[in-house]
Amino acid sequence: MSFERRTFLALAGSVPLLLMGNTPPQTNACYDPSALPLSQRSRRRSLGYLDVSSDPAKRCAGCSFFKNSAQGCGTCQMLSGGPVNAGAVCNSFAPAPR
After folding, report:
1. Mean pLDDT over residues 16-32, rounded?
2. Rounded to an integer, what distance in angstroms lies between the CA atom of residue 66 and that of residue 21?
3. Which run of H or E residues covers position 85?
4. What is the CATH number of the domain that holds 72?
5. Is 55 helix (H, G, I), strand (E, B) or coil?
6. Angstrom distance (rounded) from CA 53 to CA 97
7. Number of domains making up the chain
8. Is 5 inside any structural domain?
9. What per-residue confidence (pLDDT) applies to 29?
10. Residue 93 domain-assigned?
11. How far apart are CA 86 and CA 16, in angstroms?
């Protein structure tokens, strides 16, 4: 009986991993956070930069400080031209004129 319980628990624990697939989340697809200079990391922290915005109306791709450079990636004037994800957001978000 103990063996069956262990087998069940091992299989049940692996189901979420199988559902997620083998692909890691792409939150930092545009840049490597560990490769950013200290000045960029500090600036992001002070601006409250988040790689994924929870508000679809507030995303870097729709900000006036954002300049598109590649699919899903760009640069931000508020970050001195530093790389950002198009789906990110910070406290300096300003909607781009339409």
Report:
1. 56
2. 32
3. strand 82-85
4. 4.10.490
5. coil
6. 20
7. 1
8. no
9. 77
10. no
11. 28
Cα–Cα distance measured from residue 80 to residue 82, given in angstroms and rounded to the nearest whole number: 6
The tens digit of pLDDT for each residue in 39-76 reads 999 999 999 999 999 999 999 999 999 999 988 999 99
76: which 2 tokens? Answer: 């931000």
82: DSSP letter: E
Residues, the chain = 98
Written as six digits, the tokens of 91 are 């406290």
Instruction: Say if 76 falls within a structural domain.
Output: yes
Q: Which pair of structure tokens corresponds to residue 27?
A: 């939150």
Element (H, E) at 51: none
Domain annotation covers residue 10: no
CA 42 to chain centre: 17
**Cβ neighbours for 41, distance < 8 A, ≥ 6 positions apart:** 33
pLDDT in tens, 68-97: 998 899 999 999 999 999 999 999 999 999
- The pLDDT of residue 25: 42
Q: Determine how many CB atoms are found less than 10 A away from the CB of residue 66.
A: 21
